[in-house]
Specification:
heterodimer, A: alpha/beta, about 10% strand, globular, B: Undecaprenyl pyrophosphate synthetase, 10 helices, membrane (chain A), magnesium (chain A)
C-alpha cells in the first residue's frame, strides 16, 4: 500500500512541477511577444502621427515621466523595498532594471538580498550594472537621477551606496540574525563593564542599536523572486510589518510586474494589532 | 468546546493524508489564525462569536495535524499589540482564554492519554493575575507530556521575545555565569521562549494578509511561508493539504539554505573562539610564539570550557523559568 501512495505522490508532484514550468514558459514568452508586437507597432504608430521621429532620447524622457507619474498616482508608495532573490541563477541586468525602476517610481531605499551572499561578493558588478541600466533606461540628461557611489563610512565593510535620490544597499544573511547577535554582544559587554544593567535592555534599546548599524528604515515591502516560499534569513528583526509579495522570477521581470506589485502593496491595509 | 477532538478523518481525507505522507512532512507547523472578526462581520455575527469559532477551528486543526503526523503546533493567540484594541474586545478575549484554560484543566485525563504538552510563550506578566495563574497551572500540569506539543503565543511579539532573550543573557553575564563573548546565535536561540522546540518548518497565515506581524521572526527565517486567503473560521482540511503541498515543493531548496546557514554558524563560532584564545594568550603575554599543536590544544580547551559555561547558564535559566510557572500555579492554592 505504501508504495502505491508513494507512486501517487510522485505523480502528483510531477504534475505540479509541470504546471509550474508551463506557467513560467508562458510568462516569459508572452512577455517577449508583447515586446515584439510593441516594437512592430510603435514605429508604425509614430510614423503615422508624427513624421519627425522622436528618437531614443524622446522615448526615454516619456518613459521617465510615465514612471514618475505612476509613482505619484499610487495611494501609498513604500519607503524601502527589499528585493529578495531565492533563485540559483542570477541575472544582474534584470536585477539592475528592477532597482532602476524602483528609483524612477520614487522609492527612496532599495535593498538587494540573496541567501548565499552572491550579491555581496559581486557588489561592484551589480553597481556597475545599475549605473549602466540607469543610463540606458533613464538617459544621461537628468540630473535628478545622478548617481554617486559612496563608500559607507560608518561600516567597515565596503558597502557601496548610491546616494542622492535613492539609496541602494546590498544585504546578505550576515545582516540578519548575525547583526542581532552582534547587538546583543555589544549590550552584554556594556553590562560586563557595569555600564548598563540587564534591566536596561528592552525592545527599543535593541531596535535603535540595530537601526544605527543599518542606517535605513525597516522595509515596508519585500519582493520575493523565485518559487521557494521562504525569506531565507532576510533581516528577521526588520520585517515585522513588511508585506511579502511573491513573484515567479526576477529573470525577464518587466516594469508592469513591478507596478502590479506596487499596486497590490498600495491596497494593503495595516491594522497594527487593532 | 473541548481542546481535543477524537473524530477520525473521513475516507477521502485519510487517503489524501496517506499520499501526502509519502513525501517530506513538516514536523512543526505555526499558524497565524487571522480573519475571525472579518468572518463574524461577513456572517453578521457578534465579534466574540467569531473568536469562539476561531478557537473551535483550532481544536479541529490540531486533530488534522495529529492525523497527518505533525506533532508540534504553534499558534499566535494574542499579540502584545492586541492590547490596543477596544477594552470590550480585549476583555472578551481574556474571558475566552479564561474559559478555555479552565476547560483544559478539567481535561487532564484526555491530555495525558494523548501526551499533549502545552506551553505558553509570551510575557505573562502583562495579563490579569487570575489568568496568569490559570495558564501556569495548565503549563505545569502538562509539562511532563511528550507526545505532542502545542505552543500558544499569548501576550507575545517576536521582538519582545528577542529583546527578552538578550536581557536573559545580560543577566547571565551579571551573575557571572557567562561572558559577553559567549553570546552567539545558538545561545540566543536557546534563550528564546521557544527554546524547547525545533524551528517551525511551515508557517501558515490565513485571511490573505502577507506579513508576519511580529510572529516568530527569528524562528521562521528559514521556514516555508504560506499565505492563504481563506478566513480562519472557514479553514478546511484541504487548505491544510494545499499548504503542505507548497511546503513539499519548496522543501529541497529550503533544506539546502538551512544547511548552508548551519555551516556558517559553526564557522562563526570557531572564529569567535579563536579570537578569544588569541586575546587570552596576548594577556598572559609570555611572548613565546606557540607551536601549532599547543595552539590547537588551547583552542580545544577554550571551546570545551565555553560549552560548559553555556550549559550551566542554560540550566540555571531553565530552572528560573520553571520556578516562575511553579510559583504562579501554586499561588492559586493559597488564594
Amino acid at each position: 500500500m505504501a508504495s502505491l501512495y508513494e507512486m501517487v505522490w510522485r505523480f502528483l508532484h510531477a504534475l505540479l512541477y509541470l504546471q509550474r514550468a508551463i506557467v513560467a514558459w508562458f510568462r516569459v514568452h508572452i512577455w517577449r511577444w508583447k515586446l515584439a508586437v510593441v516594437d512592430l507597432l510603435l514605429p508604425l504608430a509614430l510614423g503615422f502621427h508624427n513624421q519627425k521621429k522622436t528618437g531614443p532620447k524622446g522615448t526615454r524622457t516619456s518613459r521617465r515621466v510615465r514612471w514618475g507619474a505612476d509613482g505619484r498616482t499610487l495611494e501609498k508608495l513604500p519607503l524601502h523595498v527589499g528585493l529578495l532573490v531565492t533563485e540559483e541563477e542570477i541575472h544582474y541586468t534584470d536585477i539592475a532594471n528592477l532597482v532602476v525602476w524602483c528609483m524612477a517610481v520614487g522609492i527612496s531605499y532599495v535593498s538587494v538580498y540573496d541567501n548565499q551572499g552572491v550579491f555581496k561578493r559581486n557588489n561592484s558588478r551589480l553597481m556597475e550594472e545599475i549605473l549602466k541600466q540607469q543610463q540606458e533606461l533613464l538617459g544621461m540628461g537628468s540630473s535628478k537621477y545622478s548617481v554617486e557611489i559612496l563608500k559607507n563610512g560608518t561600516n567597515k565593510q565596503e558597502h557601496q551606496v548610491l546616494s542622492c535620490q535613492s539609496m541602494v544597499k546590498v544585504l546578505s544573511p550576515d545582516d540578519g540574525r548575525l547583526s542581532i547577535v552582534q547587538a546583543a554582544q555589544q549590550l552584554c559587554r556594556a553590562v560586563e563593564q557595569k555600564e548598563k544593567t540587564s534591566k536596561d535592555i528592552n525592545v527599543s534599546v535593541l531596535d535603535s542599536l540595530l537601526k544605527e548599524s543599518k542606517n535605513i528604515p525597516d522595509p515596508d515591502l519585500v519582493l520575493k523572486f523565485g518559487t521557494v516560499q521562504s525569506t531565507l534569513g532576510f533581516l528577521p528583526w526588520h520585517i515585522r510589518l513588511t508585506e511579502i509579495i511573491s513573484m515567479p522570477s526576477h529573470i525577464d521581470a518587466s516594469y508592469d510586474d513591478l507596478y502590479d506589485a506596487l499596486q497590490r502593496f498600495a491596497g494593503c491595509e495595516q491594522r497594527l494589532g487593532k | 468546546m473541548s481542546w481535543i477532538r477524537e473524530e477520525k478523518l473521513s475516507l477521502l481525507e485519510r487517503l489524501t493524508a496517506n499520499i501526502l505522507k509519502a513525501g517530506p512532512m513538516p514536523k512543526h507547523v505555526a499558524f497565524i489564525m487571522d480573519g475571525n472578526r472579518r468572518y463574524a462581520q461577513k456572517e453578521h455575527k457578534e465579534r466574540q462569536e467569531g473568536h469562539t469559532q476561531g478557537f473551535e477551528k483550532l481544536a479541529e486543526t490540531l486533530r488534522w495535524c495529529l492525523n497527518l503526523g505533525i506533532h508540534e503546533v504553534t499558534v499566535y493567540a494574542f499579540s502584545i499589540e492586541n492590547f490596543k484594541r477596544s477594552k470590550e474586545e480585549v476583555d472578551g478575549l481574556m474571558e475566552l482564554a479564561r474559559q478555555k484554560f479552565s476547560r483544559l484543566l478539567t481535561e487532564q485525563e484526555n491530555l495525558e492519554k494523548h501526551g499533549v504538552c502545552i506551553r505558553v510563550l509570551g510575557d505573562l506578566t502583562l495579563l490579569p493575575e487570575d489568568l496568569q495563574t490559570l495558564i501556569a497551572k495548565a503549563v505545569v500540569s502538562t509539562r511532563a507530556h511528550n507526545k505532542c506539543f502545542l505552543n500558544v503565543c499569548f501576550a507575545y511579539t517576536s521582538r519582545h521575545e528577542i529583546a527578552n532573550a538578550v536581557k536573559e543573557m545580560a543577566w547571565g553575564v551579571e551573575q557571572g555565569l557567562i561572558k559577553s563573548s559567549d553570546v552567539s546565535e545558538v545561545l540566543l536561540s536557546e534563550c528564546l521562549y521557544s527554546s524547547n522546540s525545533p524551528n517551525p518548518d511551515l508557517l501558515i497565515r490565513t485571511s490573505g494578509e502577507v506579513r508576519l506581524s511580529d510572529f516568530l521572526l527569528w524562528q521562521t527565517s528559514y521556514s516555508c511561508l504560506v499565505f492563504q486567503s481563506v478566513l480562519w473560521p472557514e479553514y478546511s482540511f484541504w487548505n491544510l493539504c494545499e499548504a503542505i503541498l507548497q511546503f513539499q515543493m519548496s522543501h529541497r531548496s529550503i533544506q539546502k539554505a538551512r544547511e548552508l546557514h548551519r555551516e556558517e554558524q559553526v564557522l562563526q563560532q570557531m572564529e569567535s573562539d579563536r579570537t578569544c584564545v588569541a586575546e587570552i594568550l596576548q594577556h598572559r603575554g609570555n611572548g613565546k610564539p606557540m607551536d601549532g599543536q599547543s595552539q590547537q590544544n588551547a583552542l580545544l580547551n577554550y571551546s570545551s570550557s565555553r560549552e560548559e559555561r553555556v550549559r550551566g547558564f542554560l540550566n540555571t535559566l531553565q530552572h528560573k523559568r520553571d520556578a516562575f510557572f511553579d510559583d504562579l500555579s501554586s499561588q492559586a492554592v493559597v488564594a
